[in-house]
Specification:
4 helices, 7 strands, 33% strand
């Protein structure tokens, strides 16, 4: 994240929204999806609806019936908070307030090389209408999940078809962090 001091921003966000858990994971397969693109980090948006449930999404290319927490990439030099609000707007059209900085999930290769980071936030919906602002995202559906549904979603992600298993495990880790925080 050239162009600004990510460590200073993380510290500032932690002061404002709570100190995030620092979670480190080693992934057996780092050749899939988000990890083989040019980006180094993403924001993960745990959006809490007024009814207290968390929004999960599915996309056209996902295995049938699989949902996850929405995420979005940080552009080179982009501030984490700016990416969080931009991606929330693009993917949901909702107005939100940042409630809590839940976790920084750092993913390493088996050789312990840092390959990716996810910055997980709990957001409270304050208005707007749920609608995709960027059709190229390929979002095909949303569900609202209570803690029980979040837990079953993480288990389902881990049971993804073989060609999706590494991705499913990777995506389940953010739900695990969210559940630990709720």
């Amino acid at each position: 994240m050239s162009g600004h001091d990510a460590a200073a921003e993380v510290a500032s966000l932690g002061d404002r929204y709570g100190r995030p858990d620092d979670l480190v994971h080693t992934l057996d397969d780092v050749s899939f999806g988000p990890l083989n693109r040019s980006r180094e980090a993403e924001v993960a948006m745990a959006i809490r609806r007024p009814n207290g449930k968390i929004l999960l999404q599915t996309k056209v290319n996902y295995p049938n019936g699989v949902f996850r927490i929405p995420t979005g990439g940080l552009k080179p030099g982009e501030a984490i908070r700016c990416a969080l609000l931009r991606e929330t707007e693009e993917e949901t059209g909702l107005d939100v307030e940042i409630e809590r900085f839940i976790a920084i999930l750092s993913y390493h290769s088996p050789a312990q090389e840092l390959v990716f980071r996810s910055y997980l936030f709990l957001l409270d919906e304050t208005g707007g209408v749920l609608q995709e602002e960027e059709p190229e995202e390929g979002i095909t559906g949303w569900i609202e999940a209570d803690t029980r549904r979040l837990d079953s979603t993480a288990r389902q992600l881990r049971r993804s078809p073989k060609s999706w298993r590494s991705w499913g495990h990777f995506r389940a880790l953010a739900i695990d962090a969210l559940l630990a925080a709720l």
